[in-house]
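Exercise 7b. C-alpha cells:
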C-alpha cells in the first residue's frame, strides 16, 4: 500500500468520479482505476461501487476514507510542527523534462497546497545545459540523474559541483518474451549491440546520458530515440526492439495496453552494475537560503513518505 493510493481514494470520494479525480492526481482514468484495483486486491475488500450516476464508496471504502482523512490531517499537523523554517520566498530551479513530469510534478502540487503564496519557478533544460548553468553559477539548483558503472561516476564534473542524492535505481533491459534473450535472467550490455535499442527521449532534449553509458561497452549505432511512452510499449510488445532504461516496469506506465499484452514483457537485469542516481546538483561555492534548505527537506520527506526510494517505483 502506498500513501498516494489513499490520496487517490480520497479524491474519488470527494468528486464521485474517477475521471474527475484523475485530473486532480495527474493520472489517466485507466491508471487511477488500476491503482485502486491493486489496493482492493491487497486489502482483499471492495472499496468502490460503480453506477450510472457515478462512483460511490462501499462501507469498507467509507471506513478507509475516514481513517485516511484522519491520517493525512495528523500528518499535516506533524509536518507543520516540524517545519521550523518554512518557505517564505520564491524558489528557482532547473530540471529536465523527464524528471519534471515523473517525479517533481506531484511534489510541486503538494508544495502549492501548503504554500499557495509562494511561486516555484522551474526551467526545463537538457542535462548538459543544466550542468553548464550550475558550473557558471547562472542557476543555483538543478535536478538530474548521474550514472555509475561499477561504482565509477560517469561524466559528472565533481570538481565544480556538489550533489545531494535522493535515490538510486538500476539500469535494466526490457524485452518481449518472444526474444531469445528472454530465456535469461541477466545479460551483458554487449549482448545488446545487435538489437535495436529504444531509449525514452523527450522532445527538445539533448540528454544522451544513456548513450554515454552504452558507449563504454560498444559503439551504439542501433539506438532509436522516442518520446511517446505508448509507442515505446507497443514497439517492445511487438518484439521490434528492447529498451535500455531505468528500472521501471512498462506495465506501470499507465494502462495504455491491456495487461495480457504487457505481461509478455520481461525485465532482464544486467551483469554489469549500472545505476542512476537522482538528486540535486549545485555549485560547490553556493550557499542555500533558509527557504531553499526547507524546500530540499520537503522533497526528501515527500519521497520517503511516498516510498519513492523503493527501486521498483515507476518513473
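Sequence design result:
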Amino acid at each position: 500500500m502506498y500513501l498516494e493510493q489513499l490520496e487517490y481514494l480520497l479524491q474519488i470520494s470527494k468528486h464521485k468520479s474517477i475521471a474527475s479525480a484523475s485530473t486532480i492526481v495527474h493520472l489517466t482514468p485507466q491508471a487511477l482505476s488500476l491503482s485502486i484495483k491493486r489496493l482492493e486486491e491487497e486489502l482483499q475488500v471492495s472499496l468502490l461501487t460503480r453506477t450510472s450516476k457515478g462512483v460511490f464508496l462501499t462501507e469498507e471504502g467509507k471506513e478507509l476514507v475516514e481513517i485516511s482523512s484522519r491520517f493525512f490531517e495528523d500528518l499535516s499537523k506533524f509536518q507543520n510542527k516540524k517545519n521550523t523554517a518554512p518557505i517564505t520566498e520564491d524558489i528557482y530551479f532547473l530540471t529536465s523534462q523527464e524528471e519534471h513530469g515523473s517525479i517533481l510534478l506531484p511534489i510541486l502540487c503538494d508544495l502549492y497546497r501548503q504554500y499557495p503564496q509562494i511561486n516555484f519557478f522551474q526551467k526545463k533544460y537538457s542535462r548538459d545545459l543544466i550542468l553548464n548553468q550550475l558550473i557558471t553559477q547562472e542557476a543555483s539548483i538543478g535536478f538530474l540523474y548521474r550514472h555509475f558503472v561499477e561504482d565509477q561516476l560517469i561524466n559528472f564534473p565533481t570538481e565544480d559541483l556538489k550533489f545531494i542524492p535522493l535515490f538510486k535505481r538500476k539500469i535494466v533491459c526490457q524485452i518481449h518474451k518472444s526474444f531469445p534473450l528472454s530465456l535469461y535472467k541477466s545479460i551483458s550490455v554487449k549482448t545488446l549491440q545487435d538489437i535495436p535499442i529504444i531509449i525514452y527521449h523527450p522532445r527538445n532534449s539533448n540528454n544522451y546520458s544513456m548513450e554515454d553509458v552504452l558507449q563504454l561497452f560498444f559503439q551504439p549505432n542501433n539506438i532509436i530515440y522516442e518520446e511517446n511512452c505508448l509507442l515505446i510499449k507497443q514497439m517492445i510488445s511487438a518484439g521490434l526492439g528492447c529498451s535500455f532504461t531505468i528500472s521501471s516496469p512498462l506495465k506501470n506506465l499507465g494502462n495504455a495496453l491491456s495487461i495480457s499484452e504487457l505481461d509478455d514483457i520481461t525485465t532482464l537485469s544486467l551483469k554489469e552494475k549500472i545505476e542512476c542516481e537522482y538528486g540535486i546538483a549545485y555549485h560547490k561555492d553556493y550557499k542555500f537560503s533558509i527557504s531553499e534548505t526547507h524546500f530540499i527537506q520537503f522533497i526528501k520527506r515527500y519521497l520517503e513518505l511516498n516510498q519513492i526510494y523503493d527501486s521498483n517505483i515507476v518513473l
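Instructor comment: Residues 249-261, 308-315 have pLDDT under 50 and may be disordered. The two ends are 17 Å apart (CA to CA).
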